[in-house]
Amino acid sequence: MTATEARPEAEAPEREIGRERRRKEDQRLITGRTRWTDNIQLPGMLHLAMVRSPFAHARITSIDTTEAKQSPNVVDVVTGQDLAETQGVLINAWPITPDQKTPTHLPVAIDRVAFAGEIVAVVVARSAAEARDAAELVDVEYDELPAALDLKEAATDTVLAHPDLGSNKSAYWVFDSGEAGTGGNVDDAITQARDSGGIVLEREYRQQRLIPAFMEPRSTVVDPTGEQLTVWSATQIPHILRFALAATTGIPESKLRVIAPDVGGGFGGKLQTTPEEWITVALARRTGKPVKYTETRSESLIAAHHGRDQWQKLTLAADREGNVTGLKVQLLADLGAYVSLVGGGVPVLGAFMFNAIYKFPAYHFAVQTVLTNKTWTDAYRGAGRPEATFAIERLMDELAAEVGVDPLEIRERNWIKHEEFPFTTVAGLEYDSGNYEAATARAKEMFGYDELRAEQRRRRESGDPVQLGIGVSTFTEMCGLAPSRVLGQLDYGAGGWEHASVRMLATGKVEVVTGASAHGQGHETAFSQIVADRLGVPFEDVEVLHGDTQVAPKGLDTYGSRSLVVGGEALVKASDKVVEKAKTVAAHLLEASADDLDFSGGRFTVRGTDQGVAIQEIATAVFAAHNLPDGMEPSLDSDATFDPVNFNYPHGTHLCAMEVDTETGALRMRKYVCVDDIGNVINPLIVSGQVHGGLVQGIAQALWEEAVYDDSGTLVSGSFVDYLLPTSADTISFEVDHTTTPSLTNTLGTKGVGEAGTIASTPAVVNAVVDAVRHLGITDIRMPCTPERVWRAIQDAGSGTEPTTGAAAPHFDASTGMEGTVDRTAGAQDGAQQ
Amino acid sequence: MIPAQFDYLAPSTVEEALAALAQHGDEAKILAGGQSLLPVLRMRLNAPEMVIDLGKITSLRGVRDDGDAIVVGAMTQHSVVGSDPLVAEHAALVSKAVEHLADVQIRHRGTFGGALAHADPAGDLGAPALALGAQFVIQGPGGTRTVPAEEFFVDLFETAIGEDEILTEVRLPKHTGWGAHYEKFVRVAHQWPIVAVAAAVRVDGGSIAEARVGLTNMGNTPVRAHAVEQALVGQPATPDGVRDAAARAAEGTNPPSDLNGDADYRRHLATVLTRRAVLTAAGATG
Fold it and tell me: Does A194 touch chain B (CB under 8 A)?
């Protein structure tokens, strides 16, 4: 190996960051010729089928497994009693208050079930089909108990979801700007507005229950035949899963290897540690054989965690010009039957976001989390922030209507001006960068805002049966979950750092290890681009490894739009360390001072000469280790762990035009423009995919999706016949653009984009629907805005009666709990009110 | 999900299929395109001991001209029916309904006879078949009989086909030169209609000379809107001409209430959609 002036074979690659590269992982993911967990076949593998409770709340009086055990090729049938303490327990990693009520969550229930779908027995058989057949033969007798189903009713403790806890109220968490010293007292602001002829808006909004509905159902394979117990699982969080398994089953962490192979989507739904995982581990240990469990779609819909499900009671005070003087938020959040991994914390993630992009002088947030006998809830794309964004963006439209100005005008009166960054908000967060004016100006221009407003006026004046509405959402969010210290202050059970390793191989190729665990995001491509640029090597020469605790031993996985802004920065730091080490070798080989070297395009050159050496040549030289500087360790490999000091704040302006057929209530999206500021972009194609998919998911909350339970606690929308997911046939082409103010919380200047579209789009759509019919006297339509709900709102408004549009309107009733919120769920279900 | 265990036969003639049906009685289920039966089996809502697959009986496939009717073999896939020029020319209402039936994959697997025999009142083919006065040819041990559409649909998922019989073909009386439209109301493209209206009209000199209107998902069976049909005769094919007749669309119906809408909403929808369907069929707008 000689250091010569010879040029390396390849030209220095052009800049990779910013290139619209197709994803390198897509071919195998799309064709399915890849390692989905359910594709794994191991010698002698056994299969599981779950026996689940059909009742929402019941005592288990007896379980007869005799017949099932005699079924062909059944190896074992076990109950919770049989597994006892060997099954471990499911943990809640985020107790939001010290006195939170947290029911014990066993993988297999022993004497009582708390939701329809809870597992009561498990069949182990030689094939999945035989396990399923035998599961039908398990005879379980139940004593049905009264079930706490309706969120508001449950909050009054009339029926207890867990009688032994004495209350359904799990935790009450408060942030008050007056107490925190970040702002004034909100009650003073409200009183002053009332006394001085200002505006006080009281509204109540419903965040319906949603189902993440990832594409790949959950699946787990456990192999107990090695020295380490190997767990494959379709999870977003292999590292957290390993920790939690070790913490609750008694298996030493060092004896556990967890692999998240290719994972087909999650949307937060696989940010979970599940009964099914614990059971598969327990049965593999019990039988000594590899065991697989793959859920059916029906099981996924009833038993994988759900999302959202809140009532939001809001009071906003403003002066007559619409300058907001205070915002008070009181939430009821439905936990479902158990406090799951981060379930109770989801509303807390929204606590800092109701003030959004605005300069509110006073703010108060309180959430009561409530246990019910329904499927447990947890993170779903956006987790806490979509709820907050919906509430405030709906309210700003209501304020605009009250003041009588354009919704964009009311926002501009209240938002943080671009020259005011960094800005510390009334919730105590420091927004590092942003430019709301620029994003809004661009969105208005693309949308043809004034023309559409003119068309809206024409349709109103002519009494057109098809009315047009324009919806606005100027969102921001906090993402890149990290920083560890802040998470600690919020009593979250883990930190938020991310880890990366960069290895230069002897042939000059590069292996990159990340602790972020992709499940469809395109990490392999985006991370390759970053490292290719940083090291000056070809994109194709970078291999990204992840999702296996043996390969990537340190990591905190993927959720909360954190992979790029935290994990990407760890990669940058590890790559820079490699370059630093290589520089020492280069100086030695080139017989120059390190201070005289330049590094560019993968090549170290001696300034002012044509002498140089490529980083690949250095990698080979270090492998040989024949000629290294004295005392140098023969390795370029480097690790880095990055823990940011702040969250990351993408923002954007979304404009939506909806047509409302007033004869039928049918809705048609006419136009959707979004201009997001997500800082610098690594791969525009991946960003487009995230934005488009995110938008559809948020629009789906506005228009289509809702998990509905009947009066006995059975999930009525338990299949895709009734749980309406949109397809490409139901959406239009979105017009997407970006403005850029680089983030200051990471050196790449990037901001998270995974959740942005979902967070922003829901209120834009509902605002557009309401705007289309506001002139008829309608101020709200509950989500999902079904044609029937829209039609009924129009009928009620037209009949001259008070428009009772379900969740809307100032109508707090002091006689009920939670300072009086009125339950309209029953009315909506029987169709009396939209 | 995995169905319960069942035996499977794939006969190559109708006679063999009938013999198998006679042998297994009510323990057998007929498999046509499988687009309704397989989900039912997989969700274990039904567990027949024997599944008799008609897929190999080639005589049950195809579309032919038989004088005053177009004859569609029971095992003809929707995609074939939808692109058939004879159907388009003489029974355009069926072509229009098939165009928006479920999704592309289902239209390639699902069969015309299978969907009609399943008799889901939310299915897209019942209302057009009823409106056009289709005749159902049913074969059994005693031979073949023909049942008119009015008698074919008996109740929810129940038809005039006996336990020992098989639907072999559907005769669609020619409505050559009639305008046709299927107005389907859905929240997402791939779902069953909340309400749909099948309308065929013969326009003569700007007025409606004859009309046939069928309603989807407005009762336990497809519903023929006789009152609308009668009221349309002689009316000009204009929004004002059609409005009053269409307002009678919900008369005598008994629609369901479910997550997509209550019965009263469906009754209202039926009137609006009928007006639109008739006007579009007549080549007018509104």
Answer: no
Rounding to the nearest 10 degrees, give the CA dihedral for residues A744, A745, A747, A749. Answer: -60
Rounded CA gap, A515 and A546, in Å? 6
CB-nearest to A726 from B4, B185, B188 is B188
Is residue B1 in some structural domain? Answer: no
CB < 8 Å to B268, chain A: 791
CATH number of the domain residue B21 falls in? 3.30.43.10
How distant is the Cα of A827 from the closest Cα of chain B, in angstroms? 12
- Please, are residues B154 and A696 in contact by the beta-carbon 8 Å criterion? no
What letter represents residue A712's amino acid? Answer: S
> What is the CA angle A530-A536-A542, rounded to 5?
55
Same domain (yes/no): B94, B136:
yes
CA distance A163 to A327: 36
B62 and B135 fall within a common domain: yes
Indicate if B88 and B19 belong to the same structural domain.
Answer: no
Task: Based on the fold, state whether residues B186 and B106 are members of the same structural domain.
Answer: no
Q: What is the pLDDT of residues B117-173, one digit of tens each?
A: 999 999 999 999 999 999 999 999 999 999 999 999 999 999 999 999 999 999 999
Beta strands in chain B (DSSP E): 7-9, 28-31, 50-53, 63-66, 69-73, 135-140, 143-148, 153-155, 158-159, 166-173, 179-185, 195-204, 207-216, 223-224
Domain final position from B173, B203, B222? B173
CB-CB neighbors (< 8 A) of A788 in chain B: 260-262, 265
Tokens in use for B126?
Answer: 């019942």
Q: Which residue does chain B place closest to A708, by CA atoms?
A: B259
- A635 belongs to a structural domain: yes
C-beta of residue B224 within 8 angstroms of C-beta of residue B150: yes
At A558, which CATH number? 3.30.365.10
Instruction: Say which amino acid occupies A491.
Output: D
- The answer to whether position A477 is within a domain reads no
Domain annotation covers residue B268:
yes
Question: Do B12 and B111 share a domain, yes or no?
Answer: no
pLDDT band (50, 70, 90) for residue A6: very low
Q: What is the average per-residue pLDDT within A307-327? A: 98
Residue A405 lies in a domain: no
- Minimum-distance CB partner of B262 among A133, A719, A831: A831
Amino acid sitting at position B172? L
Beta-strand relationship, A229-233 and A256-259: parallel
CA–CA dist B94, B84 (Å, integer) = 10
Segment A807-820 shows an average pLDDT of 33
| Mutation target among A47, A663, A699, A708 for the B interface, most CBs of B within 10 A | A663
Q: How far are the Cα atoms of B13, B32, B158, B237, B276 from residue B29, in angstroms, in the given order?
A: 16, 10, 14, 46, 39
What range defines the domain where residue B108 resides? 58-173
- The candidate with the shortest Cα–Cα distance to B113, out of B12, B7, B35, is B35
Count of structural domains within chain A: 1
Residues 226-285 of A with CB under 8 A from B: none
Among the candidates B36, B56, B76, a domain finishes at B56
| Structural domains of chain B, count | 3
Interval A747-798: pLDDT, tens: 999 999 999 999 999 999 999 999 999 999 999 999 999 999 999 999 999 7
Has residue A448 been placed in a domain?
no
CA neighbours within 13 Å on the CB side: how many for B217? 27
Q: How many A/B residue pairs have CB atoms within 8 Å?
A: 62
φ, ψ for residue B121, nearest 5 deg: -65, -15
CATH number for the domain harbouring residue B254: 3.30.390.50
Instruction: Quote ipTM for the complex.
Output: 0.96
pLDDT per residue as tens digits for the range B93-117: 999 999 999 999 999 999 999 999 9
Q: B286 lies in a domain? A: no
Q: In terms of residue numbers, what domain contains A525?
A: 26-34+497-642
